[in-house]
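If you are new to this repository, start here. Below is one unmodified record pulled from the training split, so you can see the exact layout before writing a loader.
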Amino acid sequence: MEFCYSVDELPNAGLLVDDELEEQWVDNALGNILSVADEPSTIRGEIVPSDRNVTLNGSVQIQYRFQCSRCAEDAESVLSVPIKCTFAVGHEDERHGGGVDVDGVTESRHLALYDGSTVDLEPVILEHIVFKAPAFPICQDDCKGLCAQCGQNLNLESCTCQPVIDPRWAKLQDIRLRN
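And here is the target side for that same chain:
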C-alpha cells in the first residue's frame, strides 16, 4: 500500500483522498485479536498544504470481526478512526542541525515529520489504527460474560452457581456494621 504524495504536486486548495485500504495491510494492522470483515476498509479525508507544512484531516473506517473478551461469542463491529495530523518539515535530532517548523500545529493534532518533498500517510494511518483498536473487544457494552464456575454465557441464561468466597476473606462475612 502506498500513500505517498509529492508536496509540490498538491493543489493549494487541497487534495481529496478517498481510497480503499488493502485487506492484508489492515489485517496486519489489527493484530491477532481482530480480523477484517467483509466490507472494504476505507480512508477518506483531505490533504492541504500550508506554507511548508501539510495537514491531513480525515478518517478510516474498518469493519472487523472478533471473539468477545467476556463471553467468547463471535461478533463484528466498526472501527472509526479520526485522523488529524500536521506533517512538519524537519528532523527529529536537533543536534545535527535539525529543527521542526511547527506552523499550524495545535495540541489536538498529531505531529509527523517529513523530508520536505514527499508526505507518506501510511505510518500515520497505521499508528492511529493501532492506538484506536480495542485490546479487549466486547460484543456489547453490557455483556455479562461467562460464569467463572460453570462457563454459562450469562447473556443467554442465568446460572445457579453460588459465588465462591476466598477462604482468606471468609471471616469478613461475620462482621456486622451498626447503623
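Two things worth knowing about this chain: The longest strand covers residues 74-89. The CA atoms of residues 16 and 46 lie 5 Å apart.
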